Hints:
By secondary structure, the chain is mainly beta. The protein has a single domain (30-163), classed as Domain of unknown function (DUF427) (Metal Binding Protein, Guanine Nucleotide Exchange Factor, Chain A, Beta Complex), CATH 2.170.150.40. The protein has strands at residues 24-25, 34-38, 42-46, 49-54, 57-61, 68-72, 81-90, 94-103, 106-114, 128-131, 138-141, 144-145, 147-148, 157-158, 162-163. A 7-stranded antiparallel β-sheet has the order 2-5-6-10-9-8-7, with no helix packed on it. A hairpin with an 8-residue loop joins strand 13 and strand 14. The chain starts with 23 loop residues before the first strand and ends in a 12-residue tail after the last strand.
Amino acid sequence: xxxxxxxxxxxxxxxxxxxxxxxxxxxxxxxxxxxxxxxxxxxxxxxxxxxxxxxxxxxxxxxxxxxxxxxxxxxxxxxxxxxxxxxxxxxxxxxxxxxxxxxxxxxxxxxxxxxxxxxxxxxxxxxxxxxxxxxxxxxxxxxxxxxxxxxxxxxxxxxxxxxxxxxxxxxxxxx
Length: 175
């Protein structure tokens, strides 16, 4: 697994880290968030089973957050998922519904979410699921194992192509 670029400090700084060729800074992402298709190979494993595999996902890019990948349900093993009663509201995308996963005897609650009726600006998210990488066995983008965003609130996916600092960890909630 990739090591985080810089540890979070009690008083985290919003100063963007320098980027290298082929990298993108989360501080260059827009607000409101941008939704974009990607052909990167995205794969998710839970309890030894590949539960999702696609080269046609969507990414949400929002200032200070690592990308969140949304995978089409047609590329997800939906037989492992059960709808929960949990819902959250995003000022941009609308109301999200959450799913629990069970593969064999291993269960993880509210690990994936979807927007069944997204805001019109984000209609492409319909029939797509996002996953908390910290709650999966492993998530990959182009065969690179993803590092989960600290704090687990936003569900961001950190790869070597993404540069922070990232909102979510200690000292960053006021950003």
